[in-house]
Every structure is written in structure tokens, then in C-alpha cells.
């Protein structure tokens, strides 16, 4: 590998592109370090629920004379195994999003298609918390993307808004146009995020309050997934928050104008 890099450097050297190859090497080192960190984090994150399941199984075996205790342990086993399954699924999702073909089903659609499906997917969680979700703005705005991914992104933001808010509060899902951008925002009246955590919440496995995240079945991957989906679509995700007052996450996607890819229009005269 070293040889190949050196050969390439020489090649580029003669055409005066040394800086490019230097950047390339630093970037590939950085990518490798991030990958190693990710694997270490995954192992750690998987060990927690697996360890809990092990201890709970032993507790069930030891408490078989006490049906109330057995039921309590069994219910915690259900919680841990659900979280474990979600963690594995999200790790797979994340690696797909970073794969060779990150946008397999690209097509134009109206924002409302994404929002409606995301609201549907989080309806039960909202009901359980007596949280009302209001959808406002211009749902006709067109975006181009992978519908499944965009629904996942908005549903993850809604899920968080619901998880980190007190019962009976309101979540507003808005969509509007700003220049050539479609802004999809999820605003809650929840616990908010401290300033020191704000810029880290999009990192994989970063949680402002690990105990709370675990209790709500969180994996710490939801926002990392949203960020990758935004990037794959040429967009960005950002957050505004005030502790104790609430948070607003905004997903900005390019407005679909219809003339940038023939494959996505059906030969209309655009
Ligand atoms: P998790 O599975 O822990 O929710 P995420 O990646 O979705 O993981 O979010 C990372 C962290 O960001 C959460 O653990 C939480 O501390 C914080 N967070 C995310 N969304 C919100 C929100 N709407 N209100 C308050 N905190 C939030």
C-alpha cells in the first residue's frame, strides 16, 4: 500500500499536484481512525445490552419461585432485547448509508409524502406521551431523494422530539422554502440541549444524558443517521436549542427544480 501511495505521489509530483495527494493521505488516515473508533464503540454498545440480558436471565432462573419478580425481569429482558435489535438495525443502516451506492432509489417527490409517512411512523410514540404533532407549511414543495431515507430522517427527528419532551406538550413539523432550499424543521417544547453538547449530538453514540437515552430505548445513532442522509442528499441538518425551553432541528434539502437530471423527469419539456 505504501508503495502504491508513493508511486502515485511521484506521478502527481511531475504534474504539480503534490498537495492533492498529501490531503488524500491525511484524509484516508482520518477515515481509518474514525472507522477504528466506530468499531470500538460498537463493541462497547453491544456489550451493554448483551451483559444486561445475561444478568437478567440468571435473575429469572434464580427467582422462579416468585412470579412477580419473574415478570419484572422478563419485561426488562424485552426492553433490552428490543434495544439490541434496534441497535443492530441502525448499525446496518448507517453502514449502508456510507456504502458505495448510498442513494439507490433517487426520485422527485413532494415534501408532504415524506412528512405524512414520518408522522404515521411515530404516531404511537406520540400518543403514548400525549404529544400532539402539528404539520404546517407548504407540503407541495418538491425535493429529490430516496423516499425511505428521507422518511427515516424526519421520523428520527420526530422520535427524539417526542422522547425528550414532557407529556402533553406540542411538536411542530414545518416545511417551507428558503431560496433554492426546502427546510423541514421539527420543533419541540422539551428538555433542550446544553450548549456544550450541541455540536456533538450528531456524533455516533454521543448522548447528552446516557441514562435518559437508554431508558427511552435510544441507541445514540439516530442523529448520526439523519446527518448521513442529509449529506447523501446534498443537504445539511442543524440544531437550535435552549435548555429547558426546547429544541428545533432543521433539515435543509435542495429544492427540486426538475431540470438537473433527465432520468428523474419523464421527458417533460423543462
Ligand atoms: P438517542 O438514541 O440517544 O436519542 P440520537 O443520536 O437520536 O440518539 O440523539 C443524540 C442525543 O442528542 C440524545 O441522546 C439526546 O441527548 C440529544 N437529543 C436529540 N434530540 C433531542 C431533542 N429533541 N431534545 C433534547 N435532546 C435531544
From TrEMBL:
This is Sensor-like histidine kinase SenX3. Residues 41-257 form the Histidine kinase domain. Residues 259-270 have a biased composition (Acidic residues). GO terms for molecular function: ATP binding; phosphoprotein phosphatase activity; phosphorelay sensor kinase activity. One of its GO terms (biological process) is cellular response to phosphate starvation. Keywords: ATP-binding, Cell membrane, Kinase, Membrane, Nucleotide-binding, Phosphoprotein, Transferase, Two-component regulatory system. It is found in: Cell membrane. It comes from Frankia casuarinae (strain DSM 45818 / CECT 9043 / HFP020203 / CcI3). Its main location: membrane. The chain holds residues 113 to 382 of 425 of the full protein. It catalyses: ATP + protein L-histidine = ADP + protein N-phospho-L-histidine. It comes from the Bacteria. Its EC number is 2.7.13.3. GO terms for cellular component: plasma membrane.
